[in-house]
Amino acid sequence: MAQPTAQDSDSARGDLTRQRLLETAVEIFAHSAYDSVRTRMLADAAGVNQAAIPYYFGGKEGLYLAVAQRIAERLGGEISTLTAQAAPLLDEAAQSSDDAIELALRGILSDFARVILTQPEPHASAAIILREQQQPTKAFDLLYRQTMAPLHCTMTALVARLDKLDVDSPEAILHAHMLLGQALGFIAARTTLLRRLGQQQIEPPQIEYVASLLRNSNIATGLHEPPRTEPCE
Q1: What is the chain's Cα-based Rg?
Q2: From CA 87, how far away is CA 130, in angstroms rounded?
Q3: DSSP of 165-185, one letter per residue?
Q4: How far is 80 from 72, CA to CA, in rounded Å?
Q5: How many CB atoms are closer than 10 A to CB 89?
């Protein structure tokens, strides 16, 4: 059996350094705007030499793009699984019933909520994605292509079939966006939700409850008839 060489050890140390920087950068970029983050801050938090950032990533921007790629790979793989279930319904030769399309839409929404609420580093990943929605950088195009575009396009195609619209019509795109917003709201307004729940995180049974609500939602309006209650403080 071959013995590890000095080159193997250097490679292992390099992989470890790179991983430390990525893990640290996810948290730091989640809590601080890109322009306010300094390479010294990143290196010190990761416990590595500052020169490691240009060496492994080409600089701060390269590290930020690597963080976005890390998020996109984790989220994109699961989104591919979600969209694959709709492919047979969207085949041009398929005679898909409205019931089947509605069921697929509910299933994708339900599973998408489960995916985003159970992602590794969910708070940090969500913060970076949401910031890119408001202040897009080069990372937005990367995240869009690998995550939101495939999901949004699939949802739009299903909605277009259901509403008898052209797949590129603004109405189909808006309807699909509204539906996706039901799931994304649990991330975008997470702080409000946790304050109302009096919790530090959303618990697994609650995630399943959210998924069940979306699975049984009214696709036509996206809303249930609310009960009549007094407003809360």
Answers
A1: 21
A2: 28
A3: --TT-HHHHHHHHHHHHHHHH
A4: 11
A5: 19
Cα–Cα distance measured from residue 155 to residue 179, given in angstroms and rounded to the nearest whole number: 8
Type of residue at 165: L
pLDDT digits (tens, 9 = 90+) for 60-88: 999 999 999 999 998 999 999 999 989 89
- SS3 state of residue 56: helix
Three-state secondary-structure class, residue 97: coil
pLDDT(9) > 60? no
Structure tokens, 46: 């990761």
Q: What is the pLDDT of residue 4?
A: 55
Which residues touch 131 (CB under 8 Å, ≥6 apart)? Answer: 33
pLDDT of residue 226: 45
Whole-angstrom Cα distance, residue 140 to residue 129?
8
Considering the chain, what is the average pLDDT of its residues?
87
Q: Is the pLDDT of residue 6 over 60?
A: no
Tell me: pLDDT of 216 over 50: yes
Distance CA 170, CA 177 (A): 10
Residues 6 or more apart whose CB falls under 8 angstroms from that of 25 comprise: 42, 46, 63, 64, 66, 67
Q: Token digits for 116?
A: 């985003």
Helix axes 98-117, 170-188, angle to 10 degrees: 30
Q: What is the pLDDT of residues 15-60, one digit of tens each?
A: 899 999 999 999 999 999 999 999 999 999 999 999 999 999 999 9
Confirm if 14 and 51 have CB atoms less than 8 A apart. no
